[in-house]
């Protein structure tokens, strides 16, 4: 069955010329349709195997007529050798017109001539409806003589620009017609056109095995290609390689590849005469995918060719490349065996988490700071069916909204000012087949929550500045130390996203509620830090009674602090927290009848605002432990830090009410506020 190809150009004459070229080269193997914008020949959807578009400038106009599953090729053009010879015969330092259909096409043709090595002539672009025609005797035109001004004495028609070797090979391979590339008429065509890729011609002469080597050349023309001889001397190095490696041709050609680019495995290929496929190396801090193939003919080895490309396309060998990123940071280091704790409540949480690991559903881990949310996330990943794939973690509170969006979804080259050349792979794509851990999910902005929800529901993402949807298979584990349900009620977190994440809820237990694990953790941290000291009985008792607001993280910090004391035994006086307050609060007597009635009256009066009063009292209790007084501004800052909405005016009202019940004592001026004994009893009771 014949392949169908459509050629779309700005000019009908150019469309006819390109169609004629393709018919002559591929003959009975394809049907060629032509379309042009100057005669409005596109009436409906273009339904062919490939659409060849003459220039980037018309791509946006043409794209809406093309089927989604259709291959698109933007032509790479050149000149015939005969046309180029006509230009080289022009005297040196002569000024000439370059006449074409438009300013853009005239400039493109001038750039092409310069690329092909002609630099002894100065070209002035001329096109229809130009404001001022230059007064010049000679005009060069690529088949557009009708637009040459009448006052020009000498017109040199170099013929229409022709399809370059890149485009011909691309069309042949995409249509599975690459076996035709060895036909005499196509080889003859290649010899009739000019190419600035002299290395390609040399590579082609070195091999007769077109079926295997042409795929290398094809990809090399699209991406970076580097050719070396048997000694490892570089004789071919294209422009894409310059861009990727960061070295110019003149710095590389004729030099030994090992001296300049030691990361490329040429030596192994030349020594074993075997290909190396899909190797990932790092050059100038950029991950590069490399294929290196030996160049042979009649079982004789002539050298090797490397195809290099940036690791940015999700569709190109995704898993092979990503699996090599394991060990480069995107791995889960911990398992359930690394989670220390033998208490009944801790064992129950671990059992629940192990069962959750067998599922692919989203998990929402809730717990105070320092309770080990990421530790559990990594352990779940390593117990799941996804353990061979990436574990990718991102802290949603650590990045501003715009940066977090680009990290999660990636971006295309030129998507915004400062975008990395070649674009960037998003964390969703990087976590494909693995786990994406979203820490502090409660801090994510509402606008970004909507996009996250769609990615989780549809299992597809679109990069910033991109126009294609990328399928991803990712297991989501989210974590927060905030009450997401309360945030939903306040309108600060999307309800639909909350339900999507909260499929499997996992609540981590604070350290103060599993006191039997405290001393076990102390011993494990001491082993890990390679330190040795004993806690006295009083110090041990203080450790068990302390509230550990920062949980295991706070415990670890204190162990490190005690290690620097360089003492064999640590007594209670040397502990970095106030043990007298612990003992005092712990030994407070129960409420008297009067106090109990006062507390009932207090709870009845404050009603559903009681959480705000408790927040203030707990802050005052913490200040009391540290022998400090705290003012309204500090209380407001703490509230803001912990996501509690309290203005200084509200705090003033709350403190006055608490003082009226005898729970706090407010000093005059800047003396701050102190919790009373009754206030401490209330905190303990509530």
UniProtKB/TrEMBL annotation:
<dbReference type="InterPro" id="IPR002078">
    <property type="entry name" value="Sigma_54_int"/>
</dbReference>
<feature type="domain" description="Sigma-54 factor interaction">
    <location>
        <begin position="339"/>
        <end position="564"/>
    </location>
</feature>
<dbReference type="InterPro" id="IPR003593">
    <property type="entry name" value="AAA+_ATPase"/>
</dbReference>
<dbReference type="InterPro" id="IPR036388">
    <property type="entry name" value="WH-like_DNA-bd_sf"/>
</dbReference>
<dbReference type="InterPro" id="IPR058031">
    <property type="entry name" value="AAA_lid_NorR"/>
</dbReference>
<feature type="domain" description="PAS">
    <location>
        <begin position="210"/>
        <end position="261"/>
    </location>
</feature>
<protein>
    <submittedName>
        <fullName>Sigma 54-interacting transcriptional regulator</fullName>
    </submittedName>
</protein>
<dbReference type="Pfam" id="PF00989">
    <property type="entry name" value="PAS"/>
</dbReference>
<dbReference type="InterPro" id="IPR035965">
    <property type="entry name" value="PAS-like_dom_sf"/>
</dbReference>
<dbReference type="InterPro" id="IPR025662">
    <property type="entry name" value="Sigma_54_int_dom_ATP-bd_1"/>
</dbReference>
<dbReference type="InterPro" id="IPR027417">
    <property type="entry name" value="P-loop_NTPase"/>
</dbReference>
<keyword id="KW-0067">ATP-binding</keyword>
<dbReference type="Pfam" id="PF25601">
    <property type="entry name" value="AAA_lid_14"/>
</dbReference>
<dbReference type="InterPro" id="IPR000014">
    <property type="entry name" value="PAS"/>
</dbReference>
<keyword id="KW-0547">Nucleotide-binding</keyword>
<dbReference type="Pfam" id="PF00158">
    <property type="entry name" value="Sigma54_activat"/>
</dbReference>
<dbReference type="InterPro" id="IPR013767">
    <property type="entry name" value="PAS_fold"/>
</dbReference>
